[in-house]
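> run fold Lipopolysaccharide export system protein LptA
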Amino acid sequence: MKDLILLIWIFIIFINNIQATQLESGLKSERLKGSDEKSTNFTFKSDFAQGIVSSFYKKIVLKGNSEVISSSFKLRADEIEIYGENGSYLEARGNVFYEDYKNKMHVKAQFLFFNRKLDNFYLQKGVELEDLENNMLIKAERVEGSNKANVYIMQYSVKIYKDDTFARAENGTYNKEEKEMLLEGVPVIYQKDNYYSASRIIFNTKTNRYKLEGSVEGEFTQVEDDVSKEKK
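> ok
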């Protein structure tokens, strides 16, 4: 009886290994076609993988030093799930790092969901979004983004770091194409020794200029050099 149970366990492990191997080789060679008829492929690697393969559903779970790479992005995390038609959906958990080659963005978070069909994503928990092109760092607890539209919606404890400018708010919307940041929910902006608050703050990420709207308050510090120049 013990020998029979042992043989059954060996058979189950053997079948699972075959399925995982088939899934890995299949996903590595798949090509995704979008509406513009362009194709994209991706590869992955990890310490451990398990999956489900059938005629109507395919899913693989990568665990330990997981990584997914394509021509347009690189994704690393403790755990990554790939599922949907042609691997259209990615979920990453734990120490997530996402690098967007096209838009020159680096992203860190504890959770990421990426819809490859629509080319959009959302991130949660300790999100850091670094815009390399504009030398700006955004921190928030949740960020939704569209790579096509280049628009990012930020929520909860939003913080912006850009050169000598620091801003914080509860919510914000960043339009990378227009180089404009809209901050709402008790927004505050600091530039050098100056401080301003308003109902809404619109910040231009290219010029570092801002516009204050509604219930404006501020504190402006004038240095001694400026005072002496005015007297002259």
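The chain has two domains: 40-94+112-117, 119-225.
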